[in-house]
TrEMBL record:
<dbReference type="Pfam" id="PF03105">
    <property type="entry name" value="SPX"/>
</dbReference>
<dbReference type="GO" id="GO:0016020">
    <property type="term" value="C:membrane"/>
</dbReference>
<dbReference type="InterPro" id="IPR004331">
    <property type="entry name" value="SPX_dom"/>
</dbReference>
<feature type="transmembrane region" description="Helical">
    <location>
        <begin position="256"/>
        <end position="279"/>
    </location>
</feature>
<protein>
    <recommendedName>
        <fullName>SPX domain-containing protein</fullName>
    </recommendedName>
</protein>
<feature type="transmembrane region" description="Helical">
    <location>
        <begin position="520"/>
        <end position="540"/>
    </location>
</feature>
<feature type="transmembrane region" description="Helical">
    <location>
        <begin position="314"/>
        <end position="332"/>
    </location>
</feature>
<keyword id="KW-1133">Transmembrane helix</keyword>
<dbReference type="InterPro" id="IPR051068">
    <property type="entry name" value="MFS_Domain-Containing_Protein"/>
</dbReference>
<feature type="transmembrane region" description="Helical">
    <location>
        <begin position="582"/>
        <end position="601"/>
    </location>
</feature>
<keyword id="KW-0812">Transmembrane</keyword>
<feature type="transmembrane region" description="Helical">
    <location>
        <begin position="489"/>
        <end position="514"/>
    </location>
</feature>
<dbReference type="GO" id="GO:0022857">
    <property type="term" value="F:transmembrane transporter activity"/>
</dbReference>
<dbReference type="Pfam" id="PF07690">
    <property type="entry name" value="MFS_1"/>
</dbReference>
<feature type="transmembrane region" description="Helical">
    <location>
        <begin position="387"/>
        <end position="405"/>
    </location>
</feature>
<feature type="transmembrane region" description="Helical">
    <location>
        <begin position="552"/>
        <end position="570"/>
    </location>
</feature>
<dbReference type="InterPro" id="IPR011701">
    <property type="entry name" value="MFS"/>
</dbReference>
Length: 673
């Protein structure tokens, strides 16, 4: 009905029948009425659930003096039935929250007016606001608590089970309660450590649509294959950062300027721009063959990198790094977790993916710091510049052998059928599960309305938006990007650009200003890498539960801006404390920003970008890789100005992009509610 109203408003304003002020006033009142209707129904059903729990509590009190286990079992099943209806109600609220976001987005699109900003800003924090009931629902949490407490009590019918209040660390392993907690977290955007870390991988867990799907405990997946994918991620990150402390010395030894290290480091990212696409497409057919190809390319790339010194060729060095970039299989690793790991383990696997990346980022420079030696074997040089290549050659050959004997290819036919079934039936099951139970009378009108809308012919763009098919090309994926998504991708670009500038030029800058040795640079970079997981622990466990994601986003952007400004050399006296403190501020808050940014990105991104070759993970990877390429090219270009100007010349683009991202964030701030 509201979609039709929006269409009528457009026609009336074009014909001069109504002015914009009248339309805004009437549409606001209409949306207020619809939200109030949802909230009143929610409160009514919440009361029904509370009365059922109260009656079951009376039965439980009467059974305490008996020892009939069958009656306790029946009572526990009765509580679970309440849980099933509560789950339907939570999904009802979630569906309507999505509907509100969509109608606001459609109004803005049709009128070219930021109605969302006005509506959210005037109602979000108003004492009489109904929006809080929809988006920040806390009343149902009390019902969840009552169910959890009673089911925990009945788990041992003697009543010996520890109290969930006295032992908060104890979690009730009941599938209904786990599904309910999942729905509550999704609705309130609550998070925990595993979720926050897992968000860095941009592997969005599918909604739990049916109890049967979640109750399957013996879903077959090959743990060793998952471990091999995480091992590939770890080794690739080690491979990326192991050369950073010595890349400037290597380029000088081959007759180039120290700032050519930007080209050496960035050439891997250049190749990754292309490898991400073909690896993402290849993973539709196989996982084993892409991983074998990746290992071979990385072995050959590192071999050329190590031999470049003895053949005295910068070209061989760069070709070696390009081959390493062509072996980037992170798209395959991410896709394997998304498609082949059971839903209940996917969050842990996603957190493992991010942890492996962070550990590799720290181990790469640390390992480079230990390779301070120089010797020759059969005319081949082994020193701090070439040893990273030789070490990684051995690592990838060992990994390839392990891969060939241990990896198990999943059953693709079964996987593709299950994915197609889930994607085609997900919308039907979400609505039918509601219609069949708790909210049937209320939702019948909604179903009829959807049927009417289905007969109404809107423009092709609207049909495209409502389609469930994944994007078939990068251009199609780009057309699905809303302003909010584009802003989040810009922020991700800024994060990777600023971090790449900081890390890649660290050896040149610290050698020029502070005369640091390779070991000192390596230790500094390793310490930066080791901050990733502790920062995620603090933010994921505490900060995200105290503040909204959008608030953390803005605060982190401002802190990154402060770190960048502090890094500038304003006087001739540039000190170690200034450099180290500014680098820590920039790096740490960039890590905080990345987790929140990817969380918001997964939330505002179209569901069509959650699967297929051209998915959200690929888009974010491409944005980050392009940022790294741009940063490394900036370092090399700034080298022509001289090493004394390198620092400020590379920080200036970071500053401008950071300011642009902050401005863009404020322009779309209310759409992140």
């Amino acid at each position: 009905m509201m979609k039709k109203k929006v269409k009528q408003y457009v026609q009336q304003t074009q014909n001069g029948g109504r002015n914009r002020e009248q339309v805004l006033k009437e549409f606001s009142r209409m949306l207020d009425d619809q939200i109030e209707k949802i909230v009143l129904f929610l409160l009514q059903q919440q009361g029904h659930l509370a009365r059922r729990i109260e009656k079951l509590g009376e039965e439980r009190a009467g059974l305490m003096e008996q020892s009939d286990s069958s009656q306790f079992f029946e009572l526990r099943e009765a509580y679970r039935e309440v849980g099933v209806d509560l789950l339907k109600l939570l999904r009802f609220v979630d569906m309507n929250a999505t509907g509100i976001r969509k109608i606001l987005k459609k109004f803005d699109k049709r009128f070219g007016y930021k109605f969302t900003d006005y509506y959210v800003s005037t109602r979000a924090n108003h004492p009489c606001s109904q929006l809080q009931q929809i988006f920040k629902q806390v009343g149902l949490v009390a019902v969840v608590g009552a169910l959890s407490r009673n089911l925990a009590f009945l788990q041992d019918h003697q009543g010996n089970f520890p109290s969930i209040y006295d032992h908060p660390s104890i979690t009730l392993k009941d599938p209904i309660i786990e599904q309910i907690n999942h729905s509550v977290q999704k609705l309130t955007h609550a998070t925990n450590l595993l979720q926050f870390i897992g968000q860095h991988a941009l592997i969005v867990p599918e909604d739990i649509q049916s109890g049967s799907e979640y109750l399957v405990d013996d879903q077959s997946y090959h743990f060793m294959s998952l471990l091999l994918n995480l091992g590939n991620t770890f080794l690739y990150m080690v491979n990326t950062y192991i050369i950073v402390p010595t890349a400037d010395d290597y380029s000088v030894s081959l007759g180039a300027a120290a700032t050519v290290c930007g080209v050496i480091i960035g050439s891997m990212a250049v190749a990754q721009v292309f490898s991400s696409v073909y690896f993402s497409a290849w993973s539709n057919k196989s996982y084993f063959r892409p991983l074998v190809f990746s290992s071979i390319m990385l072995f050959l790339g590192n071999l050329l990198y190590a031999l470049a010194y003895d053949v005295n060729s910068l070209a061989v060095l760069i070709v070696g790094r390009l081959l390493c970039g062509l072996g980037s299989a992170r798209a395959v690793n991410r896709r394997y977790i998304s498609d082949c790991v059971p839903l209940k383990l996917r969050l842990k696997a996603s957190a493992g993916f991010v942890s492996a990346s962070a550990l590799g980022m720290a181990c790469g420079p640390a390992l480079a710091g230990l390779l301070q030696t120089n010797f020759k074997i059969y005319g081949l040089t082994f020193d701090q510049s070439t040893l990273p290549g030789w070490i990684m050659c051995v690592a990838w050959i060992t990994y390839l052998f392990w891969l060939c004997i241990s990896f198990k290819e999943p059953d693709h036919i079964a996987r593709e059928n299950s994915v197609n079934t889930l994607s085609s039936d997900s919308g039907h099951r979400r609505s039918s599960s509601l219609e069949d139970g708790l909210a049937q009378p209320f939702l019948m009108d909604a179903k009829e309305s959807l049927d009417e809308n289905g007969q109404d012919n809107y423009d092709n763009e609207e049909d495209l938006e409502d389609s469930h098919k994944p994007a078939a090309s990068l251009a199609a994926a780009y057309r699905l990007l809303t302003p909010s998504v584009k802003v989040q991708l810009l922020i991700y670009f800024m994060i990777k650009f600023a971090m790449e500038v900081l890390l890649s030029e660290s050896s040149v800058v610290t050698t020029f200003y502070f005369n640091w040795s390779t070991s000192t640079v390596a230790m500094f970079l390793a310490v930066l890498g080791l901050t990733v997981l502790p920062v995620n622990v603090i933010v994921g466990s505490y900060i995200t539960n105290l503040f909204q994601d959008r608030q953390i986003l803005v605060a982190s952007e401002i802190m990154v801006l402060i770190g960048i400004v502090m890094s500038f050399r304003f006087t001739s006296d540039y000190s170690v404390p200034q450099y180290v403190s500014s680098a820590l501020i920039t790096f740490v808050f960039a890590e905080v920003l990345e987790g929140v940014n990817l969380s918001l990105l997964s939330r505002v991104m179209s569901s069509r970008l959650s699967r297929g070759t051209y998915n959200g993970g690929l888009l974010s990877t491409e944005a980050g890789t392009l940022a790294r390429v741009a940063a490394d090219m900036t370092i090399t270009a700034a080298g022509y100005l001289g090493q004394s100007s390198l620092l400020n010349a590379t920080l200036l683009p970071s500053l401008l992009i950071c300011v642009a991202s902050i401005v863009a964030t404020f322009c779309t701030y209310n759409s992140l509610y």
